[in-house]
Design goal:
This protein is mainly α. The chain contains twelve helices and two strands. β1 and β2 form a beta hairpin.
């Protein structure tokens, strides 16, 4: 038994990936390529149980096919059989989303943390010589209301402004020590952009290089390094909880109707 959408997705995939080309006759460049009925009708496909077809079909309707193909291609080097089960692809997709949600939570915390320090110390003293140009503009646009100005200040400008605070106040921001603070700021900003724009983090190649302990050479542009970079900016107890939440993302939390949790161990990030 097969649902219509399962065949539809499968046949579209075979066409877009040129799987049918080897079975066809003619010249595809001139639109004269034909797949004969006898070959098409004898094309063998794997047919999972009906319940799994329904799950796959519903999942692909909302998540798309191409992203799953990219995930499969990432996982293939670790497959001894040369095949990747759908459960591994789906679990990888969900694992990435879990990581993204955790990072969203702690990046949001960090933004609120910096805004709170500035607001608590300067709510009644909004005219300061160390304000950066972007904050001055936001104050002007918001009738010198510091809270509103900070709410409209982008993350990059907030980081720069936090660095410009007087030494005693800046100390409250708990910036990590070391000579690579600027590099790590840039990396933190790019991580935030990737998370807020719902990038698929396990495949993303736009992270900036950052300097952290816990990775080879203490310098890397991979996802693990960028997560560790975020953690070193957080207050210690918050960073510890963030690390735990990231490690917990790999756990099986399936409900009865969910696709089997089958996360490939090679992609798991352990902090």
């Amino acid at each position: 038994m097969c649902i219509r959408d399962s065949y539809l997705y499968l046949l579209q995939l075979c066409y877009s990936k040129q799987i049918f080309y080897s079975m066809a006759q003619g010249v595809s460049e001139f639109g004269r390529c034909r797949l004969k009925a006898d070959k098409f009708l004898h094309f063998e496909i794997m047919l999972p149980p009906y319940e799994e077809q329904v799950s796959i079909s519903n999942y692909l309707k909302t998540k798309g096919i191409e992203k799953h193909i990219l995930i499969k291609e990432k996982l293939l080097p670790w497959s001894e059989s040369g095949n990747i089960e759908y459960t591994k692809v789906a679990s990888t997709y969900r694992y990435d989303k879990r990581i993204r949600l955790v990072l969203f939570k702690y990046l949001s915390y960090l933004e609120e943390f910096y805004r709170a320090i500035i607001l608590d110390h300067y709510i009644n003293e909004v005219r300061q010589r160390f304000w950066i140009t972007e904050l001055r503009k936001k104050l002007k646009d918001n009738s010198n209301n510091l809270n509103d100005a900070l709410e409209h200040l982008d993350f990059s400008s907030l980081l720069i402004q936090s660095q410009k605070l007087p030494k005693a106040i800046k100390k409250l921001c708990l910036f990590p020590s070391g000579r690579h603070l600027t590099d790590n700021f840039f990396a933190l900003k790019e991580l935030r952009n990737a998370v807020m724009h719902n990038k698929f983090l396990l495949l993303y190649r736009g992270f900036n290089e950052c300097y952290v302990q816990g990775v080879d050479g203490e310098k890397s542009a991979n996802l693990k390094a960028n997560i560790l970079n975020l953690i070193q900016f957080l207050p210690q107890e918050v960073g510890t909880q963030c690390k735990k939440d990231i490690n917990d993302c790999k756990e099986d939390r399936n409900k009865s109707n969910d696709t089997t949790w089958d996360l490939p161990p090679q992609i798991v990030i352990t902090l």
